[in-house]
Amino acid sequence: MYYRPGWLVNFCRFPIARHFSLCLLLVLLLSSLSFPATGQSRAKGPQTHAPKRPPAKTHDGSQAELESRLAALQAAFHSGDPEAIRAADVKVIAFGLRQMAELRMVEGSFPQAIELYRQSIDFEDLPQSHLRLALTYLQVKKPDSAMEEAEKARFSDPENPLAWRLEGSAFMQRKDYKKAAEALAHSLKLKGDPETAYNLGLCFLADHNPQRAKLVFSDIVRNAGDSAEVHLMLGRAYRDEEYYDDADREFRRAIAIDPKTPHSHYYLGLLILIRNQWSPTAEARELILDELKLNPNDAVSNYLAGMFAAGDHKYDASDRYLRLAANSFPDWPEPPLYMGLNAYGRGDYKNAELLLRQAITLTGKDEARGAYQIRRAYITLGRILLLTGRKEQSESYFKKSRELLDTALASSQQQVASIISSEGGSVGMGAVMPLVQKKQEEQTEADTYFGNPADHIDVKSLDKLPPEQRQQAETEENYLRKILGSSFNDVGTSDAREQKFVQALKDFQQAERWNPQIPGLERNLGVAAFKVGNYSEAARTLSPIVNANPQDAPARAMLGLSYFSSQDFKDAAKTLVQLGDSALNDPGLGYPYAASLAKSGQFKPAGEVLTRLEQQQSPADTLLLIGQTWSEIGDYAHSIDTLHRALALNPGLPRAHLVAGLACINADHMADAEKEFKAELAVDPANVEAKYHLAYVYLLESQPDVAEPLLREVIAADPQHADAQYQMGKVMLEKGKVQEAVPYLEQAERLSPDKDYVHYQLQTAYRRESRLQDADRELQLYKEAKARKREQTLPQPSQPNQN
Q1: What is the DSSP letter of 140?
Q2: Rg of the chain on CA atoms, in Å
Q3: Residue closest to 359 by CA, chosen among 312, 325, 407, 387
């Protein structure tokens, strides 16, 4: 079996790693990425060329691959072949997304990396991308998804050792160690490497087969060398699976080979504490102090040393250690907790109170942390408050302390000893193990969730990288953003030319996410959004274009129509008025302009625009819209005349008689309204609104018996018709059929809870049924709805004032 010792040496320089997998991942990713100086972005659009980029150091040819794809794109532009340009852009996008995913992996932003790999695969389905995606899924503890991606890679290459290894890692996360061992062993058979071997050994330990694990670990030592780093790594593997004798042997072997190996004394000291029920033996104390001589700023070693000193009532020494731990991890509540207890032990109540309150704040909702150790802060604060004359406040802290004690006793009987011992002022080492475990998790697992997972592309997480690597990553990201933004814009332009505006809009939105500074992108977005009817998006992107260039008539027209379609009539009128005669001479613009004026209360200018529109030769459907707008501004006679002109051109024009009938109602011409609604039903017998308003006319003419069957037909066709439900309930109520009226009125209330007259009629019905409490409730709702009205307008035909 052949191994690469260099990998193991790299790994061993990171003794904080939990397994080979994460550390090797970082080594490989850092070597696979190049961080060149930012290049000039190519101009955006279909007539452009790929940019020149300064040469950069690279380890795996990624820079050369990108340059090759950009060169192919440039050649495609020179050829003028749209299909070739699109294909080349797609390959650039796929590669750029993969490289951006690699950056996210290094940053530890794994959900973002997952989304980027997925997008990349959509553009270019490569086995390597599935493997990288599988690796990322493992980082966020989704073994099923990781296994699915590894199997996709194995479908293309059944003997891919990395695919088998990742599948084995997925089985490990599922705790199916037998299957994991089979997959890892097969991977080793195909290609030996220390990470796979190490994970195989871990599987054997987890499956309670230490003898087979020892054989694997011995093989690692034989091939990688008998180094302190290797034994330290093996010791941690044994410790984590509770083979303490083996762990002890490996840690002591590491110290014997090289006493200066970082963290070796700490790990042995920690093991001794674990084996001695967290009692700080003399040897454990000495080992932690030895570690601090080699690594004075190690947070957990300082924390442990601070605990030891606190237990010995050496408060000043304890505080020195705890302050160092707090400086390394200011979000830990433990250092201020124990420094607060130290201050209390000295009688310094003022500082003790400040520190203990800080510990409570940092603990937040994680009260179970460290076997509910924060309880000590509450009980000590209660004593301080009592001693300083704040008896009432102290009771709340004592109460909280008792609640935490009850919770701790209920959650685990094993915690009783440590909680009771904390009362006597002992070190309380039960708190150390959860903290140490948390520290190890922080050291070995990057942050799984970064920001909002929905922000897959725009977020960055560079704080974890050293300054030099952070600058390199930012440079690489800025360059990739320009490349991706430009290529998405090109692909969107290609889709738009083929009238595929839905896809074009998605492409342009992707381009904006990557690089919103692309010249012409806002217009591309606006036009595509307008074409697909996404008017809010069109308004967002066209508005700055019109603001920057008020003379851009096409953009202004689309912006005005987008406002109109979004029912933003005030802005629509303000935008379209600037088009002048061009809007008045084009019915497609003139009607929205007139309607926007009318709906925003500007009746006089709306009438002037409508008069101009009527002077033109307009088709019947345009005259219908003009007639409807005349009705909206209150000129009902003009509305009816215009609608009849439309019907003269097209006697079967849908809705023309309906709109004319509504105008007749408002003009108080009930006989004419009846004729119009009947005429509409002759054109469209299923028209619910025409049927309802015909029934409404009969009600206004005091013919409820004629209206009732029409209302029943409306309700049968549309049970959600609130006005029909209300009118039907009112008819039943007027006939004295209270029990029949109530369900109709209740349904009307559910559908239209803001209509005051519905509540009024319902309270009347309840009162007649002697349901006085319900009646009083509805009367109150009626008064509240009435009070909410700011202006009274003429009642609409479908919403008459019934009171």
Answers
A1: T
A2: 38
A3: 325
Three-class secondary structure assignment of 673-692: HHHHHHHHHHHCCCCHHHHH
Name the DSSP class of 39. P
Residues facing 799 on adjacent strands: 796
DSSP string covering 687-752, please?
A: -HHHHHHHHHHHHHTT-HHHHHHHHHHHHHH-TT-HHHHHHHHHHHHHTT-HHHHHHHHHHHHHH-
SS3 of residue 757 by DSSP: helix
Angstrom distance (rounded) from CA 437 to CA 443: 10
The count of other CB atoms within 10 Å of the CB of residue 681 is 17
Which amino acid does the sequence have at 246? D
Q: What is the 8-class DSSP label of residue 480?
A: H
> What is the C-alpha to C-alpha distance for residues 668 and 610, in angstroms, rounded to an integer?
23
Q: Which SS3 state, helix, strand or coil, does residue 44 take?
A: coil
What sign results for the dihedral spanned by CA atoms 377, 379, 382, 383? negative
CB half-sphere exposure, 207, CA atoms < 13 A: 21
CB 632 within 8 A of CB 600: no
Strand partners, 206: none
Residue 740, class by beta-carbon neighbours within 10 Å (0-12 exposed, 13-18 middle, 19+ buried)? middle
Tokens at residue 496, please?
């738009």
Query: Does the predicted TM-score (pTM) go above 0.85?
Result: no
Task: Supply 322's token pair.
Answer: 């705890």
Burial of residue 580, with CB atoms counted within 10 A of its CB: 0-12 exposed, 13-18 middle, 19 or more buried: exposed
Q: Is the pLDDT of residue 134 over 90?
A: yes
Q: Which residue has the tokens 């990713």?
A: 29
Structure tokens at 145: 């998804």
Give me the mean pLDDT over the 442-461 stretch. 38
Residues 450, 451, 454: CA angle, nearest 5 degrees = 100
Q: Tens of pLDDT along 690-734?
A: 999 999 999 999 999 999 999 999 999 999 999 999 999 999 999
Instruction: Give the CA dihedral 713, 714, 716, 718, nearest 10 degrees.
Output: 160
The CA-based angle 64-68-71, given to 5 degrees, is: 135
Q: Rounded CA gap, 670 and 95, in Å?
A: 71
Q: Which of 176, 172, 125, 173 is nearest to 153 (CA)?
A: 125
3-state class of 465 per DSSP? coil
Dihedral, CA of residue 329, residue 334, residue 338 and residue 343, to nearest 10: 60
Q: For residues 130 and 137, what is the distance between their CA atoms, to the nearest angstrom?
A: 10
